[in-house]
Write a structure and sequence with these properties.
The structure is a single chain. By secondary structure, the chain is an all-alpha fold. It has two domains: about 1-35 and about 325-365; about 50-320, ABC transporter involved in vitamin B12 uptake, BtuC (Orthogonal Bundle), CATH 1.10.3470. The protein is about 75% helix and about 0% strand. It is built from 15 helices and no strands. It is globular, with a radius of gyration of 23 Å. The two termini are about 20 Å apart.
Length: about 375
């Protein structure tokens, strides 16, 4: 059958969409919500104003950066699920440097971002070296390092870095606000003729530039080729003289640096201070974004935008007085992510596609044979 792969891919996507809409509609109907209005808010409301679209892009930025880091690690043969911890350590290092270095002005922003990347890189180095030298599962080590980073950040937020204004239980723990010269400028402050309602910062430009740089590094340089070769087949790579263990560590360092940058950009561009939940769970969501983007740095960009769109739309349900409990919003978001990733895995399975093609061909031949008879 001609163009079967295209038809198969479109069919799987349509089935996934219908399944998602069907289950979500059933859940919303049980909750007593207006199904059509709910879907309109999730998918269309973010486009109704520049302010809303800015919110989507601000969510997209850290998702893109984390997703890029996950791609580098996975393509090199190691699964990094420690993005959340690497974000926390990166932004913690960035905050400490910003508050106590005394450096302000135009040069402060790139220096703070470099420090944040270094913090994430160090936190990614430890699981990498444990994997390459001692064979410790990266799934176990990265999860444990997430817990360590979370507790370390919580301690610093409540004790050495606590803002005196909220000391004594006067409010949620937070750090002192960074100097305004250390904030990432908004896009309308850098590019002329951008509407005033546009509030997203230049971090999205950094994220897109990093995606391009990582693509060129991984696909157009000898080092990137060796990293991908190590990830494709470590035995063949070793036979070819490639030091697989060294490139595993390098991949985790780069991956951690990307996640550390994601945390730093979130602080410099959105919160401007350390807060209790400033990562927004992007360290975990970025894994799904990377998978949905085909584990390709450039594919992460549209995938991150799509997930940011859904996330912002779901968060806007309460604003638009849709009677959906806040915890059910997470359920709907998780449902959409689960079905999308499942569809992605089905499309990527060549054996299943061959089986479906064989079955369809057999049915067509049987039908044609019956017609001829």
């Amino acid at each position: 059958m001609k163009n079967f792969k295209l038809v198969y891919t479109i069919g799987v996507i349509l089935l996934a969409v219908l399944l998602t809409l069907g289950i979500a509609s059933l859940v919303l109907a049980v909750l007593g919500a207006d199904v059509l209005k709910t879907f309109w808010v999730i998918f269309c409301y973010p486009f109704t104003s520049f302010k809303n679209l800015s919110g989507v892009i601000n969510i997209m930025t850290p998702l893109t950066l984390v997703g890029i880091g996950i791609c580098v690690a996975y393509r090199s043969g190691i699964m990094n699920i420690g993005g959340e911890g690497q974000m926390l350590i990166g932004l913690l290092c960035a905050i400490v440097f910003a508050l106590y270095s005394g450096i302000e002005g135009p040069l402060s922003i790139p220096l703070i971002m470099l420090v944040g990347m270094a913090g994430g890189a160090v936190w990614g180095f430890f699981p990498g070296i444990l994997k390459s030298k001692f064979g410790v599962s990266e799934l176990l080590s990265t999860v444990m390092f997430n817990y360590i980073a979370t507790q370390l950040y919580a301690y610093c937020l409540r004790v050495p870095l606590l803002d005196p204004a909220v000391a004594g239980g006067a409010g949620d723990p937070q750090t002192v606000k960074l100097a305004e010269s250390q904030w990432l400028p908004r896009i309308n402050e850098v590019i002329e003729n951008v509407p005033k309602g546009t509030r997203f910062h230049i971090g999205i430009l950094i994220a897109i530039a990093l995606a391009v740089v990582v693509y060129l590094f991984m696909w157009k340089t000898p080092v990137g080729f060796k990293m991908r070769a190590a990830g494709a087949s470590d035995r063949a790579a070793r036979y070819g003289g490639i030091s697989v263990s060294a490139y595993l560590v390098l991949a985790m360092i780069i991956s951690g640096a990307c996640c550390g940058l994601a945390g730093t950009v979130e602080i410099l561009g959105v919160h401007h201070r350390g807060l209790g939940n400033c990562t927004g769970g992007y360290g975990f969501s970025g894994i799904v974004v990377a998978l949905f983007g085909g584990l390709h740095p450039l594919g992460v960009i549209p995938a991150a935008f799509f997930f940011a769109l859904i996330s912002y739309g779901c968060s806007a349900l309460q604003i638009n007085k849709i009677p959906v409990p806040s915890n059910m919003i997470d359920v709907l978001l998780g449902l959409m992510i689960m079905v999308i990733v499942a569809a992605k895995l089905i499309i990527a399975n060549p054996y299943l596609m061959d089986h479906v093609q064989h079955t369809v061909t057999k049915l067509i031949n049987k039908k044609e044979g019956g017609a001829d008879a």
